[in-house]
Design brief:
Blueprint lengths: L6 E3 L3 E3 L2 E8 L5 E6 L4 E9 L14 H9 L11 H7 L7 E4 L3 E9 L2 H15 L5 H7 L2 E2 L5 E2 L1 H7 L5 H13 L18 H6 L3 H11 L5 E7 L3 H7 L1 H10 L4 H6 L14 E8 L5 E9 L10 H15 L5 H6 L9 E7 L5 E10 L6 H15 L3 H21 L1 H15 L8 H11 L1 H11 L3 H13 L3 E9 H41 L5 H4 L16 E5 L6 E3 L3 H16 L8 E5 L4 E9 L5 H4 L2 H7 L4 E4 L2 E3 L1 H11 L2 E6 L7 E9 L3 H14 E2 L2 H20 L1 H14 L13 H17 L3 H13 L3 E7 L7 H5 L19 H4 L10 E7 L5 E8 L8 H12 L4 H7 L4 E9 L4 E9 L2 H17 L6 H17 L4 H13 L6 H11 L2 H15 L5 E7 L3 H6 L6 E3 L4 H4 L14 E3 L5 E3 L20
Parallel strand pairs: 4-10, 11-15, 18-25, 26-30, 26-31
Antiparallel strand pairs: 1-3, 2-3, 3-4, 5-7, 5-10, 6-7, 8-9, 12-14, 12-15, 13-14, 16-17, 16-18, 19-23, 19-25, 20-21, 20-24, 22-23, 27-29, 27-30, 28-29, 32-33
Helix pairs in contact: 1-8, 2-36, 4-20, 12-15, 12-18, 14-19, 15-16, 15-25, 16-17, 27-29, 33-36, 33-39, 34-35, 35-39, 36-38
Length: 1085
Amino acid sequence: MAIPSHWVVSPTIDELGCQLQVFTSSLTNLRVVLLTAEGPLVNCYFTLATEATTNGYADANDGLPHTLEHLVFLGSTDYPFKGVLDKLANRCLAQGTNAWTAEDHTAYTVTTAGGEGFLNLLPIYTDHIFFPTMTDEGYTTEIHHVTAEGEDKGVVYCEMQGRENGPGSLIDRKCMDLLYPDTDGKGCGYSSETGGKMAQIRDSLNNDKIKRYHSEYYRPDNACLIITGTVDAGDVLAGLDGFEKKWLETHPTNEMAGKIGRPWTTAVSPLPATKSETIDFPSEDESTGTISVCWRAAETAFAAKHAMSALARKLLWSYMTTSAASPMQVAFVECDDAICGDVSHVSETLSVGYDQLWFSMCPVETLDEVIPKLEQTLQQVVDKGVDMELMGTEIKRFRRNYKVAMENAPADQLYFAIIKHFLYAERDPSDPSVEHNSMKVMADQLKLLQQLEETFTTSKQWCDLLQADFIDAPKVYVKGMPSASMAKEMAAAETLRTDTQATTLGPEKLSALGEKLKKAVASNETPPPDALLSSLPIPDATNLPEIRVEVVHDDEPDGTLRGDGSQALKEHLAKSKISASNANKINSFPITWVNLNTVFVKLQAFCDTTNMDPLLRHCLPLFFEVAFKLSVKDGDVELSSTQVIEGLQADAICAGVGSSSASGNLGVEFYIQTEIEDMAKSAEWLKRMMFKSVFDKVELKKAAAKLLKETPEHKRSSRSMRSALMTEIIYGAGGSTTNANSRNFIRQNTFLERVMASLDADDGIAIREMEECRKQLVSNIRVFVSTNLMNLPSPYLSASNMFAETDLPSSTRTGQPSPSLRDYSFASFPQATTQVLGLSGCENSDVSMCITGVGSTDSQLAPLMIVIEFLTALEGEFWTKIRGMGLAYGAHMWNSTISKTLTFKLGRATDPVKARDAAAQIVNDFSAGKLKITDIDLESTKSSLVYALVGAQATKNEAAAGAKYNLFGGKDASYNKKLIDKVLKVTKEEALAALSKFLVPLFGGSAVTVIVCPLNKVEDIAKSYVSGCVVVKEDELNKHFGALCTNLPNKERKVEEGGGGGLKMDWTTLRMCDCPKCELPKKGV
């Protein structure tokens, strides 16, 4: 479609296969940025500049930007029904809509499969953003209300309650207060809590303030619509025609544009001197704290003349912090006297942005050493000089990673930079080229990087930057100290505040508040007419664009190549295989070749741990931490730990080892990604790290110490504790048959202390156990190679370095992987049980409920997916009756086809008992026929589910990973298409049958349930379970998680050197835990 004449069109900017163009309306000054890129998805980011300050009607911490964001979704003047936007979005091959609020902007998002659905939704979404209803009833349920019991609830209140007093939030909030001080009583927007502080939401905020804020900031001249994917520009602009007419009719003078002006143009007060402060955060564990250090950036990165210095600062901190061999890591983490568990860097682009260092997992006794050590380390770098070879590696890595991101998902790489450009780029109404030129600088990062290389040619230039911007510049730092007493005081204070509030209000007012809430709920639940919901046609999902991959497996006993690859690809591989065999460079390991259009290559070695001995499973987390930091002895080649780290930094885009996403309980993956011309080199690196590394006492001790420092962080997290408790119940104590429980951070704490004792005693036991762990780990391997195989002259020869001179037995070639990897089958799923843990510093609850589910080939999978999608959809039943009532911020449900488990989860629940009961009532009402799934509901659910299935393989990385998931799931290449076809054929009766079969038992007393909650809620929650439950005490977690599958302390253990560096053990001297799965293995490993 032609571009309407009133839109001013900028020249096109080409960037690595993408085209970027800006359209500006001469009628409303609305900006539209279109980033055209190949792929099945269209992404929308409708962005408004939002600033929160203290003024004549509001406080900077009222949370106006965030609370307004929530109200936008509750209906518009043309579509005055709560939830209608998300219900219509689901008919557009999307999973509803979403939004976020940052310190300087609010962005409304939607992602659709294909462009047709997006174009259908655009006018409706725009009407919600600029013409929301913002009713008082919506405010009551969505923002804040007081219940008939005198408790504070509401969706936003629940959200902020879950994050306000977390360690990271408290420390960061204080950093921003110091970095952007209030010098005029108005507050600097960069230090405001845009989400809203709980006290402000309770006592200061009201709906009239939000309405006024909307009138001031939600203007088309203050908005930018960013669209990525493949969609016609003319169609997009035509879809905005109705909005522009309505805006001009209702805002003929657009007075707010002149009254408020462009946000973020007021000068930020300077930071004259270094500031510091110590704060407490609630935590039962008082062993570790955190320090954050911030510096102001010298200027905005989007003034074109300053873009290079902003990039230079980014590269400088990457050089200082990224790798294990970088100066900050060596000084603070990767050393014998480490004083913290991690050092990380973040930066933010603002009108005056900042750089921020986080020193986390610091033992409290070393916290006071951090700042002096930081100053010493920075000065040492200046005195010694920046290593220009390593800086060259950082620049090379930046260039390589940028190319990877642009090839894989250009939208994800560029959309946030476009947002920041809209907010801060210089504008000259008389000269549009000023803004366009800065957009070109923003988009062409490779050109900017080249200019930087040509400018920063000496070590002195980098040292001068470090000296001027960080050593000599004022900074702020905040020390966060854990406090068990604060945790208890907070819980007691909240109980007292709520009780006092209820007493002060009295029965009459409380009753009135309860009635007010009921009326608000009733008003918000007015359903949109069926005619409106069916007014948007559902796009055709059969011809959506897709990322094409070809897969060929070489895993049959007779060497036959199988898979869906083209004949040309199979012939190319067969020819390569013959060449490798003739050169005596062929191996018998099963290998899967994934062919796709890329200039990179990713090698993965999947290790099957099904038969790994119980003791050695405990070694895996330590092995994951240290594996790519060890020295190497490979024939005549010897590399130190530092040389390995720096070599991988120079050659690899990414490299590492960890649990496999395809089979997390039994699989381990080594991986490395490089440019395609470096495939042989990447294969050699993978071989060295898998087979030729040397376990070193010093490196093991550093890694074990680092992991030990992480334990308190995990114990403070309600999500981590919920997951650990659930895993312990489901997979059985001790973790002898899977890796899940042995990875448990509390059990790991015991194991790592044992490792440290062995290393201190220099008895060799820990090192020999790690060697045997590695030996068993790599004894059963399957290799994946993902690249443009047709551009490799001989793929087999290129990959042969991976197993050259490894002296390992050949893996069995049996075609498909073992069924135990495809689907973890429980010998017997645990009986229903409930555990409740009261956690210090936790202000709301996290809940998980789990029962058996279905696998990927089960005939009930498609109907179960439909009913889950229907109940959990945005503005679906769970959303409106759990989140909408302020009972929990999120209610989610999913079926894992790998573990065959069905899980229901509540996040940030203010009342987990009522939220659970609400979910149960919904399920039972559908099962009993009291609630119905309509034809429109079923259509919309299917459309949303199709988006989820298409979106799961929307990038090249995801498409390549899909080949791996298909293999381990026992699926063919067309599995997704077949599943979509099955989903589209599901009837209402089949969906309800799945609900009755699976969901009714989930909420009917058959589930394993774990609840992590505030300390003052434990007793009430425990009483709500009539069959009783186990109360887990925070100070008895070590006891709760039981013993390791290992030897008793101080008991003789018979250990002798085995052949090939193996370890022979007399298992009769080992103590086994009491779990029923922990059986004695065969004597001798």
